[in-house]
Design goal:
About 40% of the residues lie in helices and about 25% in strands. It is α/β, with parallel strands linked by helices. The strands form 2 sheets. It has a 3-stranded parallel beta sheet with strand order 4-1-5, sandwiched between helices. The chain has a two-stranded antiparallel sheet with strand order 2-3. A hairpin with a 2-residue loop joins β2 and β3.
């Protein structure tokens, strides 16, 4: 199965770093934390024979339209969303 692990862009233009229990505006840290959790999940899924893609849109500076285009081209059967409670409504948008 094709699986997409997605950290979506914020519709408000804020680039949020979300990793484990941490969530912060990218500007607050001055760098983008690697998506360790997403990459770990991707590795486990690949080891089980799935085709996996990780899209960390805030880190890439990728806008919603570009994210949608890339996701449709990949054609996943399952999308796992990296989110947090304060950003849930924005991420689900």
């Amino acid at each position: 199965m094709k699986v997409l692990l997605l950290n979506p862009p914020g519709r408000d233009g804020l680039a949020m770093v979300k990793e484990g229990r941490c969530m912060q505006r990218r500007e607050a840290w001055g760098y983008v934390m690697a998506p360790v959790t997403m990459v770990t999940i991707a590795t486990l899924l690949r080891d089980q024979g799935h085709e996996v893609r990780v899209m960390d849109c805030p880190a890439r500076g990728q806008a919603l339209d570009a994210m949608l285009e890339e996701a449709v081209r990949f054609g996943p059967g399952l999308v796992l969303l990296n989110t947090s409670t304060p950003r849930l409504a924005d991420d689900l948008h």
